[in-house]
Amino acid sequence: MKDDYLWDRSGPPDPDIARLEKTLAPLRYQPPSEPPWNRPAIPVAARRSPWWMAAAASVLIAVSAWQMSLTPAPPTAWRISRIEGAARLGRRSASASMELGAGQVLRTGPSADLTLEAGAVGRLDLGPDSALRAASSRALELQRGSLHAFIWARPREFVVDTPSARAVDLGCEYTLTVNSMGDGLLRVSMGWVAFQAGDYEAFIPAGAECVTRRRGGPGIPYFEDAAARFREALAAFEAGSGPLAPVLSNAGPRDGLTLWHLLTRVPPAERAAVFDRFAALVPLPPQVTRTAALAKDPRAIDRMWDALNLENTEWWRGWERQWK
Amino acid sequence: MMMLVSSHSAEDPGLVRAAAAGDRAAFGELYLRYARMVHGILLGRVPPDEAEDMVQDVFISAMRQLAGLRTAAAFPGWLAAIARNRAMDYFRGSRERVPLDEALTGRQPAAKDAVEDAFLVLDAVRRLPEAYRETLILRLVEGMTGPEIALRTGLTPESVRVNLCRGMKMLRELLGGIEIK
C-alpha cells in the first residue's frame, strides 16, 4: 500500500516524509532516563552547603530578573499615531502614542491595523496579522504581515528586513508583505527600493514589484503592467519549472528592467540570449559590446542600466555596485 | 517495533492500576512510555520550549488525579485530555504566546538553521485542523508509528490512518511553495 511508510514505516520510504522526519527531528522530545520523581534523593551531606549562600543566590537572581523586567528598551523614533483593533507591543496592549523600544515586537490582531510615525524618517501603516520588530529608528524587521511605508528620510538610511531579504529605501513609497513561510512581495508605488540578500540585489522602480523567497532571496523585478504571458513565463523560470526562452520572446521594451536583472543572474550559457534580446529591445550606446556585457564588465552593465532611461536615478550614483 | 508496542500495551493497565495505588516506579514507567505523546500534543499548541517544560506539569497533574480514574484502559485518552487542557490554560494565563520565530532567539548559530527549518515546517503543521495536526506531529516529530499513536492516544487505528493520510495531503499542499532541505 502506498501509505505504508506513513502508517508504520514499512515499505520503501516516501522521500517527502523522510525529509520531513529529518527536518523535524530537532524538536523531538528526549525523555530523561528516569523521571524527576524517581531520582534518588540527594544525600543530606551532599546538600550541606551554607543556607545563607543559597538564599543570597536566590535573592540575587530574583532582583536581577526584577531589574531586567523594569529596564525599559531604548526608545526608537517610532510612535503609534493611530490604532484600530487589538494589537500588542511586547507584552502590553498597544495604544496610540506608545513608543516602540529597540528590540520590541509590535503585533496586530486579525482585524487590526495601525499607523506608526517617526518625524525624521517617515510613516508606516501596519496591516492585520503582522509582526514588526524595531531594531532601531532606521531599521525595522517585518517578520510577517504587511507594511505600507512612506519614507522621507534620505535614500539608503532606512531599511526593513524580512526573513529573506532587506528592503533598502531609496526615497519612496512601497508596500511589503511577508507570509508565514517567510516569503515576501515588494510593490513600489513611488521612487525606488533596493532588495538585498547576500550577493543578490534587485532594484525596483515605481510600478514594479519583486518577490523574495526565504531560500532564494530577492527574485527578478518586473513591472506590474507587464504582459501576463511574460509574467507567467518569468514565474515559471524563477521556480525552476520553465525555460528561459518564453521569458525572452514575450518581453517588451519596458521589460528591459527584468532582462537587465536576468543578465547577471542566469548561468553563463544563457547570458548571450538575454543580452541579445535586451539589445533588440533597448537601444544601446556603442561603448557597450557584447563581449563586455557577457563578461559582466561593470562599466558595460552600468551603461546598459543607463540605456533603460529609468527616472530618478540619482541614488544610483551613490550605490556600491558589486557585479558578481 | 510492533512487538515492543504490543507488549507495552498489555502491561499498561497494570501499570496504571499500580501507579494509582501509589507505586512511583510504575508511574515513572508510564511517563517514559507516554511522554512523547504528551509532548506532541503540547507542541501542536504552545511554543516548543514551553512544551518541553510543560510535559512534567502534565504528568504531575495526572499523578495527583490518577486515583480518580475509574478505568485503567481510559488512561491514554485521559492523559491526552489533560495535556490539551494544560495547553489551553497556557493561553488563558497572562503569558503571551511566543511566535515560533522568536523562540529561536538565543540559540547557537549552528543549531539555529536546523531548528529554523524545523520551526518552519512545524508552523505549517500547526495550521492544519486539530485532528490532523496532532496526529502528524506524533508521527513526524515524535517518530511514533500509526499503531503506536492509536495505542497512546486512545484513538482507533482507522481514525489515525485517516488523519495521517488527509493531514499529509494538506501539508504537502501547504509546503508546496517552499523548499525544505
Describe the overall structure.
The complex is a heterodimer of chains A (about 325) and B (about 180). By secondary structure, chain A is of the alpha+beta class. Chain A folds into 2 domains: about 75-220, Jelly Rolls; about 225-315, no CATH class. Chain A has helices at about 5-10, 15-25, 45, 50-70, 230-240, 245-250, 255-265, 270-280, 290-295, 300-305, 315; strands at about 75-85, 85-90, 90-95, 100, 105-110, 115-120, 120-125, 130-135, 140-150, 160, 165-170, 175-180, 185-190, 190-195, 200-205, 210-215, 215-220, 220-225. Chain A has an 18-stranded mixed sheet that branches. In chain A, helix 7 runs antiparallel to helix 8. Chain A is flat and about 70 Å long. Chain B has a single domain, classed as Orthogonal Bundle (Rna Polymerase Sigma Factor, Chain: A), CATH 1.10.1740. Chain B has 8 helices and no strands. Chain B is globular and about 50 Å long. The two termini of chain B are about 30 Å apart. Residues about 1-5 and about 95-110 of chain B have low confidence and may be disordered. Chains A and B meet through helix 1 and helix 2 of A and helix 2, helix 3, helix 5, helix 6 and helix 8 of B.
Helix and strand layout, with pairings?
The complex is a heterodimer of chains A (324) and B (181).
Chain A: H1 4-8, H2 15-24, H3 44-47, H4 51-70, E1 75-84, E2 87-89, E3 92-93, E4 99-101, E5 105-108, E6 113-118, E7 122-126, E8 131-134, E9 139-151, E10 159-161, E11 166-169, E12 173-178, E13 184-190, E14 192-197, E15 200-205, E16 208-213, E17 217-218, E18 222-223, H5 228-238, H6 245-249, H7 256-265, H8 268-281, H9 290-294, H10 298-307, H11 314-317
Parallel strand pairs in A: 9-10
Antiparallel strand pairs in A: 1-4, 1-6, 2-3, 2-5, 5-8, 6-7, 7-9, 8-9, 9-12, 10-11, 11-14, 12-13, 13-16, 14-15, 16-17, 16-18
Chain B: H1 2-20, H2 24-43, H3 48-65, H4 75-92, H5 109-125, H6 130-141, H7 146-153, H8 157-174
Helix pairs in contact in B: 1-2, 2-3, 2-4, 2-6, 3-4, 6-8, 7-8
